[in-house]
Amino acid sequence: MYEFIIELKNVSKYYGYGLLGISRFAAVDDVSLGISNKPLINVIAGESGCGKTTLARIILRMVKPDKGQVLFNGKDLWRLNRKDLDEFYKSVQPIFQDPYDSFNPYEKLEIPLLKTAKKFLNGNDKEIIAVVEKVLEIVGLSFDMIKGKRKDELSGGQLQRVAIARALIPSPKLLVADEPVSMLDATLRANILNIFKELKDRRDINILYITHDLATAYYIGDYIYIMFRGTIVEHGHIEKVLSEPLHPYTRTLIDALPSYEKRERFAKEPIELKETELKEFLLRGCKYYYRCPYATKKCFEEKPPYIEASPNHYVMCWRYGGSS
Amino acid sequence: MKVNNVTGGYYTQKGFVNAVNNAWFEILQGEIFGIAGESGCGKTTLMKIIYGYVAPPLKVIKGTVVLEDEQIVPSNITLLQKNVWWRKISWIPQAAQNIFNPLKKIFDHFEETLKSHGYGDTPKAELRELVEKHIVRLGLPKEALDSYPHQLSGGMKQRVAIALATILKPTVLLADEPTSALDVVVQRAILQLLKRMQKDFGMTIILVSHDIHMLGVVVDRMAIMYAGEIVEIGDVKSIFEEPLHPYTRALIESVPQLGVKKVIKGLAGQPPDLLSPPPGCRFHPRCPFAMDVCRREEPPYIELTPGRRVKCWLFAKR
Question: N or C: which end of chain B has fewer CB within 10 A?
């Protein structure tokens, strides 16, 4: 078997802007990454407008990249034959941010689950219901709990669990979860995060967790990619990246996480926000140039190289070496 | 500012939704006071009542809100509009980035606000000077005044909205989830701005949020709300270092922290329907320490030390 279930090779996606949309900027800029077959939780973290959702859509085959290649089990995702494509739709399942948007308000909740099961599996009604019961059990619900109910009768946390159950029906290898807990209350979030952990540990499911929140990322993640304006600026084992961050942007993100212990420091080091998003996207060199306290002329002119600063800890920054 | 035993809610077709029940607290001059609670706990309703914006279907059944010598609840909206709002108390609503008229420049918003609040005869140049001074004092660029709203980023718009709300130097500023749609780095900038207004203008700020850790970095004292009730109140140090109410503990512990790999349980169940809240303590169905009395009787407010109150049977002397 190929080492990676999904592999991105120098993938870029451009969007138009301006009056007629003729000018373009790269929402995802030359990104390479591999999601291995081993069950792991990979995190893609970044703020709004960093390109993380576009990246998720590229992986889900919802958006076709303009440059570069996406490989599924080593084959080009956009040139799969029918059989491999079916295999892809079974193996890679999405989970979205707002569970209320994922279900039809007029339909009873068991209907989409049964439909999904019928679509992916062959079997009689009894077997199909058995599968649905099993996936609901995995997420801590039961068939009787949701039977006959519509989406507005469940809380956000329960509904998100139904969405996860639905995604589990075809026995996927990879779940792509884009901000799956950001709509939920703090006290309910932990339950969903624990389900993801359990899916990885007990059912060998790979999870790509896309989020803006480093704290929940740290709680469940194994590896992390930090994104900024379309590029991956740092990547490595989550413990290492978040305890010894190399890129100045990663440092800023960590410092801005509020917690009572940081109270004294939080009001100091005033944050200045000057440049616009678009201006940053269009930078030829390092996208962090305008905000970086260490920026030099070289950073403006040339894109920094991706450097392995310590084993398996990569950073895209001139401060860690590389020559032009 | 004093909030005395306020009970209020909404009349709907299904019955009365008791969104705020017996809220009772005072806010000290010049402090940042936080109100933490999850969605549907009644924190925005409480905010509306504190502001005096009581219009159907919202109704206040009992209680009063008093700001210095001004009666805010009960009162009437026209009167408040004339004398109190903007001058004494200002409100930054949720998603304040969207309050601007897209066809008008930022300065026009300031001009309009000033003109309708006693600056009707002031020449434009003077108004401009006044606004510029205010904006610069808050650490914002003057150029923002000549921009259209769409030219500014979300974080900048939010800060301009705060500047607009404070142009008449109100005594109290109400901020409802001022950072909920923003990135963490921008959030930090907004919180720094609020801190600065407290320090430089001696402004009293009431900050409402679902994120208790965000409140933890800026507020001086805070209240925790659950299902329409204030369950705990105290200074920020005691809330974080010795949380009393089981819900407060759950709220603090359920957010993962960097560097801590401990398993987080969260809470089972979900907040009650405020149409028919559970009998006794409203938290008892989810509480790990629930006793018999919690199911039968509503817990009293227990004042442990001055200003430190909790609404829980665990702390009652019997």
Answer: C
- B17 and B79 belong to one structural domain: yes
Q: Chain A: which residues have CB within 8 Å of chain B?
A: 47-48, 155, 157-158, 185-191, 193-194, 212, 214-216, 218-219, 242-243, 252-260, 262-263, 266-267, 270-274, 276-277
What letter does residue A275 receive in the DSSP assignment? S
Q: Which residues, at least 6 apart from A282, have a Cβ–Cβ distance to it below 8 Å?
A: A25
Looking at residue B120, its amino acid is: G
Taking the C-alpha atoms of residue A44 and residue A104, their distance in angstroms, rounded to an integer, is 29
Q: Would you call A258 and B184 a contact, using CB atoms and an 8 Å cutoff? A: yes
B271 CB neighbours in chain A (<8 A) are: 185
Walk across the sheet containing A231-237 and list its strands: A92-95, A174-178, A206-211, A41-45, A223-228, A231-237, A313-316, A306-310
Task: Write down the pTM of the prediction.
Answer: 0.88
Class assignment of domain A4-320? alpha beta
Q: How far apart are CA A190 and CA A251, in angstroms?
A: 25
Virtual torsion, Cα B231, B234, B239, B241, nearest 10 deg: -140
Å from B116 to nearest chain A CA?
Answer: 32
Q: For residues B61 and B188, state if they share a domain.
A: yes
**Residues of B (213-252) whose Cβ lies below 8 Å from A:** 213-214, 216-218, 236, 240, 250-251
Put simply, whether B140 touches A (Cβ < 8 Å) is no
Q: Beta strand pairing status for A23-36 and A174-178?
A: unpaired
Beta strand A41-45 with A223-228 is parallel
Using alpha carbons, select from A45, A44, A162, A47 the residue that is nearest to residue A99. A162
Give dist(CA B88, CA B52) in Å, integer.
12
What total of structural domains would you count in chain B?
Answer: 2
Sequence spans of domains, chain A: 4-320
Contact criterion met (CB below 8 Å) for B228 and B19: yes
ipTM confidence: 0.82
The alpha carbon torsion through A117, A118, A121, A125 (nearest 10 deg) reads 100
| Closest CA relative to residue B197, chosen from B230, B227, B172, B226 | B172
Q: Which amino acid is at A248?
A: P
Angle at A85 between CA A176 and CA A56, to 5 degrees: 25
Residues of chain B neighbouring A157 (CB-CB closer than 8 A):
270
Chain B contact set for A191 (CB, 8 A): 266, 268
Query: What residue numbers bound the domain in which B121 lies?
Result: 98-169
Give CA B50 to chain center in angstroms: 9
Contact residues on chain A for B218, CB-CB shorter than 8 A: 266-267
The answer to whether residues B193 and B239 belong to one domain is yes
pLDDT in tens, A66-77: 999 999 999 999
User: Where is B208: in which H helix or E strand?
Assistant: strand B204-209
Instruction: Tally A–B CB contacts below 8 A.
Output: 120
CATH code of the domain containing B43: 3.40.50.300
pLDDT tens digits for range B88-141: 999 987 777 788 999 999 999 999 999 988 888 889 999 999 999 999 888 888
Is residue B177 domain-shared with residue B159, that is, in the same domain?
no
Whether residue B265 sits in one domain with residue B209: yes
Q: Are residues B243 and B178 in the same domain?
A: yes
Q: B299-302 long-range contacts, Cβ below 8 Å, gap at least 24?
A: B301/B24
